[in-house]
Amino acid sequence: MTVDKMAPMAITMGDASGVGPEIVLRRAAEGAFAADPVVVYGDAEILRHGAELLGIDVDIEVLGAPGDWHAGPLQVIDAAMLGAADHRPGEIDAAAGAAAREYVLMATRDAQDGKVAGIVTMPMNKEATQLSDPGFVGHTELIAAACGVQRFTMMLTAGDLAVTHVSTHVSLQEAIRRVKTARVVEVIELTHETLHRFLDTPRIAVCGVNPHAGEHGLFGSEDAEQIVPAIEAARAAGIDATGPHPADTVFHQAVHRKRFDAIVCMYHDQGHTPMKLLAFESGVNVTVGLPIVRTSVDHGTAFDIAWQGVAFTGSLDHALGWARRLTGT
Fold first, then answer.
1. The pLDDT value given to residue 3
2. Which entry of 89, 128, 171, 205 is 20 to 30 Å from 262 by CA?
């Protein structure tokens, strides 16, 4: 995909009940976007009401199209789905969940059309969105489906380390079933393709799925039967992939010994748990394999602290930084 370097970056504001739009407003009040080509996809009335709740002064302007961006106010592509009376901070709300889903689809369409350079998504609440879309799993799957893509995965970044996943939002039993050679090869390739934009030869560690990477068959056969052939295939294609590595030591080797640039994990918690320990506030979620750039803050809607003015705002800066790194804008 060729990115128009003059196009603004899209931010989807996320679930109105959560911290997403609050973070956007607070950064706008601090002047973060005054001269920065950024447009927010959301509901202008929620943002105006939210600014009142927070007691901050933010000039909000509705745009007809992303290309109308100009320096000054916080500019919004208005879905016009929620009004001030619909704002329910900290509550699971079906209307807010449905609206959050629509913001993402609107921004995705505009990204596909080149109207925005990429998408940075603020958090949605799965339970709220599933009230109107029972099949909703997460941002990653929603955007991939909208783009007509089946070859994709989730990447988490923290500083110089990236982590990708063979599976994410499925049960542990299903995750183990999905550890198949073809899928592991696919994720190694996607990891290499993404990091190769910045690194000549990304060093990729591939985790085992069983304790101690199977301990030569003592703790399961998946490592030898499914993961080893995938690593061999990747290496034959010229990718610097090694493993399978025991998951309980590979993060130490990557972070403290600087042996790896990326780690391919077999399931959600194998990658998410150490990455959120390493960089809970600065981690970024990147969907790789899409024809568009999509990054996200790596935290949820935080209903317990939403609209209280205490949520950490730096996560948005990190996600925007990665989006610009990937688009070259």
1. 58
2. 171
Q: Are 102 and 79 within 8 A, CB to CB?
A: yes
Helices 181-195 and 228-236 meet at what angle, rounded to 10?
A: 40
Q: What is the pLDDT of residue 5?
A: 61
Task: Locate all alpha helices (DSSP H) within 43-166, ordered by sequence.
Answer: 44-54, 94-112, 126-130, 139-146
Report the first-to-last Cα separation within the chain, whole angstroms.
Answer: 14
Look up the domain containing 112 and give its range: 9-149+290-327
Rounded CA separation 140/150 (Å) = 11
144, 158: one domain:
no
Q: Is residue 2's pLDDT more than 80? A: no
Helix axes 247-255, 268-279, angle to 10 degrees: 30
Does this model's pTM top 0.85? yes
Query: What's the number of domains the chain is made of?
Result: 2
pLDDT tens profile 219-264: 889 999 999 999 999 999 999 999 999 999 999 999 999 999 999 9
Is 137 part of a structural domain of the chain? yes
Same domain, 185 and 203: yes
Rg over CA atoms, the chain: 20
- How many CB atoms sit inside 10 A of residue 221's CB? 10
Any domain includes 263: yes
Shared domain check, 201 and 126? no
What is the rounded CA–CA span in Å between residue 159 and residue 19?
A: 24
Token pair, residue 71, equals 């320096």
Q: Let me know whether 28 and 80 are in one domain.
A: yes
